[in-house]
Amino acid sequence: MTATRAAVTPVRRPPAVRALVVLLVATAAATVATEALNWWYTDEQGFGLAVRTGWAMLRALGFLILIWHVRRGRAGAKPFGLILAVTTVFAVGRLLVPRDGLPALPGVAGFAGLALLCAAVVLLLYRSPSVGGYLVRHPSRLVIDRKGVSWQEAAPRRPQATGWLLTARVAAFTYAPLMLVPCLVSIGAIPDHGPFALSAVVLWFLVALGVSNVVLPTTFFMLRGRRWARGLMWGITALVLLVDLPLCWWLLGADGLIRDGAPLVVAAGLTHYGIWRAR
Fold this sequence. Notes:
Helix content: over 70%
Strand order of the largest sheet: 1-3-2
Mean pLDDT: 82
Number of strands: 3
């Protein structure tokens, strides 16, 4: 057998898809610009702000990955875009408000523009018929048939999952990073809370790593319609919230609970709302 590459017929992207790509580029640039403005004008340029700012700026890379999926018409671009847009607004917004006083006007203007861009991205992804009709392709894989070996698009063997179930899966994938960010920020608070705080931070880190390993197989079976996987996801979410929120409150205070706990609560809500809608 000889290895061949399947012929791919060029597909002209609809104007709405091209507009979405331009919008995503602008959103990635706005994310970096807003964080740079916030860092420039803030008076608390400490370790915690550096970690949160670095995590927020990584969202620009996420938008570039989303552009790659959109240009190739991948069906998974919708849930990925929804979670990325929502968590970006929270990741940037939680750094905007200082502990004391009012936020800087340039930062507020940048955040308002970024929020509008994220809202426009979600509207195009979920409300545009042209975009919805274009984002239907599946990842390519090696296919062996009578003609030989080829690399071509292949539909998954599992039953087709609904868009809401895919959204729940992507939202669950954010649990671990949303736990790791405040965990790293809390390292600076260890000297103020005694030796027990070090053990708590280590436990926090281990739970986040464990969640990242458990979510993947759980969502794998959840997409295949296993009821026990949905029940396990409820247990994972409860564990995540029971570990993360009290530690945010204890080590980072009410400010940390709002900045770092609120995005995790939103991700948990999206996960189980997606599971409920999929039923």
